[in-house]
């Protein structure tokens, strides 16, 4: 199979679909790889590095899309990229369709087979291709939140860990999954006053056993959330419903009660965001202010640490890519129901129920596509 990797074109997206090491692995498995020139520049990988791994280099994305049987990317295809997809071509990348009707309609119209990293599952009920980026985004959320809290970042002028004689910042993390756990690790490490809100008793017990007295673990309810954010310096939205639109847990009325210069970091913005006042931003212009509260809602947070993110992502994605290329997508999904869960759009049909529910669109059982 000929696998194509175009250069990412989303605003300030520096990751790339395959590292040179992953290319070498695919070549060794009997596949061919086509890379758009400079696609790996954002992770310090040159065209020469890709050539040494066995890839062919082409000058434009159009050549990649025209020739490749499978396109491997990082972020959802932009409008110009969607226009280049063709019937039966495989697209393997993050999609986040639930809040994005335009992309969903374009992918359906393309006739392509679209596999979303974020909905592939595993035997433990996890999301193995989303987890690496959740870990990165969770840890990064505290870094960017700390920067936004600085007066120069529009915030209250609070140091997250404080110093002797002052109180540390109050950090509230909504959700105790991969994002929330990693955010809490960073916030605790900076000596913040950390509270994690969670609804699962099992997750709360795990968090409590891990953090002990270093973080408060509280059952999340609207009343508890509304009370805590009044005095919070930094609130991190870390909720996830796989493949579906994020619930709007923090209302505009709640935000009006927050301290001026407090910061919201919405890690769920890829799925529409969990704050009512959230709207997607970019690394070029990451924050805005509503009712005196700083909002950080960058939709591709891990792109800021592109080398770390790309290598972490490839460690999870390349094995599935090898199976798809070796067996073909139908057989690979027939053999692996977890990979089948990643099928979101198939040859003109929407196949992921949570996306259909979010957008009010009809869906079909993905098994019917096999």
- Give the overall silhouette: globular
Task: Outline the low-pLDDT stretches.
Answer: none
Share of residues in helices: 25-40%
Structural class: alpha/beta
In N-to-C order, the SSE pattern is: EHEHEHEHEHEHEHEHEHEHEEEHHHEEH
What is the CATH topology classification name of the largest domain? Answer: Rossmann fold
Q: Strand percentage, roughly?
A: 15-25%
Q: Give the neighbour order of strands across the main sheet.
A: 3-2-1-4-5-6-14-15
Radius of gyration: 21 Å
Amino-to-carboxy terminus distance: 19 Å
Please give the domain count.
Answer: 2
CATH homolog superfamily of the largest domain: NAD(P)-binding Rossmann-like Domain
Extended strand count: 15
Biggest sheet: strands, sense, closure? 8 strands, mixed
Q: If helices are DSSP runs of H or I spanning 4 or more residues, what is the number of helices? A: 14
